[in-house]
Amino acid sequence: MSDHDHDDGDHQQAPPSDLALRVAALESLLVEKGLVDPAALDALVDTYEHRIGPRNGAKVVARAWVDPAYKTRLLNDATAAIAELGFGGLQGEHMVAVENTPQVHNLVVCTLCSCYPLPILGLPPVWYKSAPYRSRAVLDPRGVLEELGLTLAPETEIRVWDSTAEIRYLVVPERPAGTEHLSEDQLAELVTRDSMIGAARATPPKPKPKDPA
Amino acid sequence: MNGVHDMGGMHGMGPIQPEHDEPVFHAHWEGRVFAMVRAMGAWGKWNIDASRHQRELIPPAEYLRMSYYEKWLAGLLELMVKNGLLTRAEIATGRASPTAPPKAQPALPAEKVAPFTAKGSPANRATRGAPLFRQGDAIRTRNINPVGHTRLPRYARAKRGVIDRVHGTFVFPDTNASFQGENPQPLYSVRFGARELWGEQAADRDCVYIDLWESYLEHCDANNNTS
Questions:
Q1: A204 within domain boundaries
Q2: Does residue A42 lie in a domain region?
Q3: Around A192, how many Cα atoms within 13 Å sit in the side-chain half-sphere?
Q4: Within this chain, do residues A39 and A118 fall inside the same structural domain, yes or no?
Q5: Do A138 and B39 touch (CB under 8 A)?
Q6: What are A65-123's pLDDT values in tens digits?
Q7: Is residue A145 part of a domain?
């Protein structure tokens, strides 16, 4: 099959051409039978390639950083608070938000499949769906985070959330230091996808250009 | 089922491989498979739990070899055949059978994609009666090994935990996956100490939260002094 096999089998960059052909043949068969509308397939792909993604979640986190009342609502009823910003729906019908602090670090996984909060993060990255992450995130979260480039203090409490039901989890990362002067939109740019899974911190702000080197 | 999909706690799966600037889909066909799964789901012939279970039924060696959307494709084909939407002959030839029913109207037309995505399919149901457990209750998970679908991972069976929150009443996947009814039950977030799950090698203060249905749980007498 593919010219490079990774350990997890999920990192396929050059699919066998017969797979692409099989999928194309299946689509034309389903269209011939009137079972799918090809324009609906286009719209679904477009939705997750261009309309729904982690910028949605970043807006939620930035709002929580600047508005304490919003953060309280988010932590108490995430589904409703996220809906205030216009996000929700498929695979985000029931949301819970958990907050990272200097003492507590949260990390989200789905050991059984690939559950992920689609309306605010879009479709999950390959590593999140892969066997290495699904197997070890619950067993050795500190090691997994090290592997992903995040070293936590030994005294930090790690809380891993295994998404086994239809509840979807959003991690609210810590607001980076030195961001007091930033607007909500500028703050949202610091909120990465991985920071909302708990796999990274939010991006530190760029140093002010006037600072002497 | 005690399948290879139930990966929590396994070793030997290799390093995690994050990808810089990862595309949403790595090939055109991946997006088409994703979209076909959603569009075919709209026929209402199966449900999300049955769909997950179908992917769990992929033989273990194949499951580990296949890429993510290959698994989705394999699961979709089986569900369509089982539910009479396609025949294996049609899949093999790529042509509708001469005896197939007249051309259908797609269940998910393009104009319904946006409302379908925005609305979703909530899995909560009306609550009947009080939940058996309350926040702070000590529980033990049952030691069950069903051959069918379950959302109680192997690593969390026969373990002691504490109810962290009550989510409400939710469709029970174990019966819904096999079309034996939604049988809604209270769903809880349960906190397990990492050492309860993994022993002394785990950090004392770390914990794992798992969403578990009421019938997976029993009162834990050993810790019952919390009430």
A1: no
A2: yes
A3: 14
A4: no
A5: no
A6: 999 999 999 999 999 999 999 999 999 999 999 999 999 999 999 999 999 999 999 99
A7: yes
Which residue is listed with tokens 């580990």? B64
Closest-CA residue of A relative to B84 is: A35
> Looking at the 3D structure of chain A, how many domains does it have?
2
A109/A62 same-domain check = yes
Q: Is the pLDDT of residue A3 over 60?
A: no
Q: What are the residue ranges of helices labelled H in chain A? A: 17-32, 38-46, 54-66, 68-76, 78-84, 118-121, 126-129, 131-136, 141-147, 184-188, 193-197
Tell me the residues of chain B between 61 and 80 that have a Cβ less than 8 Å away from chain A. 64-68, 70, 73, 77
ipTM exceeding the 0.90 mark: yes
Considering only CB atoms, which chain A residues are within 8 Å of B57? none
User: Which residues span the domain enclosing A33?
Assistant: 17-49
The amino acid occupying position B158 is A
* CA–CA gap between residue A22 and residue B32 (Å, rounded): 11
In this structure, the dihedral spanned by the alpha carbons of residues A26, A28, A33 and A35, taken in order and rounded to 10 degrees, is 70
Please identify which residue in the block is written with the tokens 């906190």.
Answer: B191
